[in-house]
Write a structure and sequence with these properties.
Blueprint (H helix, E strand, L loop, with lengths): L26 E2 L18 E6 L14 H9 L5 E2 L4 E2 L5 E3 L2 E2 L6 H16 L4 E6 L4 H12 L4 E5 L19 H6 L3 E7 L4 H10 L4 E2 L6 H11 L3 E7 L21 H14 L1 E8 L8 H24 L11
Parallel strand pairs: 2-5, 2-7, 7-12, 8-9, 8-11, 9-10, 11-12
Antiparallel strand pairs: 1-6, 3-4
Helix pairs in contact: 1-8, 2-3, 7-8
Length: about 325
Amino acid sequence: MSVSDCSPPPAREMPDPGTQAPPGGPFQWNTFLNTPPDEARFETASFVVLPVPFDGTTSYKSGARHGPSAIIAASSHLEDYDVELNIDISEAGIHTAPELVPDLSSPEAVVRQVERLVDWVATSDKTPALLGGDHMVTIGAVWAMLQQFPKISVLYLDAHGDLRDEYMGTRWGHASTARRLVERCRVVPVGVRSLCQEEQSFIAQNELPVHYWPPSVPFDQYVKSVINALAQDVYVSVDLDVLDPSIMSAVGAPEPGGMQWEHVTGLLRRVGEQRRIVAFDLVELSPNEGPEACAYTAAKLAYKLMGYASSSSQSQPRAKISGGPQ
């Protein structure tokens, strides 16, 4: 089944709780920053938070399905003003969609749900901000964004390669997410420090621009190399296990020797300054595996990503395909 086989989404007005649901439903409701829905209307928001609580392909520690709700709950304690950027990021407008109830018939069914939902948001000229859940939700999101930005590249922050063609009986799991993306667009993996032999061979055969961690060059040079590998329009995907377990233990597959907070935010800020961040996701928080600080850290990172994306969109207008919504 191709992307074009998906039925078109319905009207683009985001419903209030209890009214007709957006594509992919049914849903449950909550809000990022604990903002009352009438203060962050879909019509006026720049960002739409899309919680996708699914972890059906987990291979080590499950619980990422609780990640979106934990991030949203922790976000209520964030300061709206960001010291680093010297702005109130929330002024851009943040609408929180109802929580998606995933179709448990198969992982691929969830991919299709996410694809339709993200397409619906993106064609409304909003920036999708997914909260997972399993990293495989990224597949559907990127497929949807490709319809609006056909030359998009994916900045893929992850401790693992996720480049297996199949794992545990499915081609749609977290261990195959980057592999499914590579089939359709340019992917730039960053922070990688764990691979199987199949993945290493695939990287070599296809000359993928993998940026391993720790870097063998100064960090500033590492960042430049990452940015040079990206297209102008960028989808950012952050698996929280890219961070070192000392600051992010609440993940399903913790991997020692990871990036620190200042590495991830430093890279993402530079990407926002030099490229257009047109959508992003933050995935794999498994809140029961770590302290509450992990959920707060994830919420802070999601909020900062909105800030970096706001900066990039203000300086570089989004270049959509001809014929799309303007």
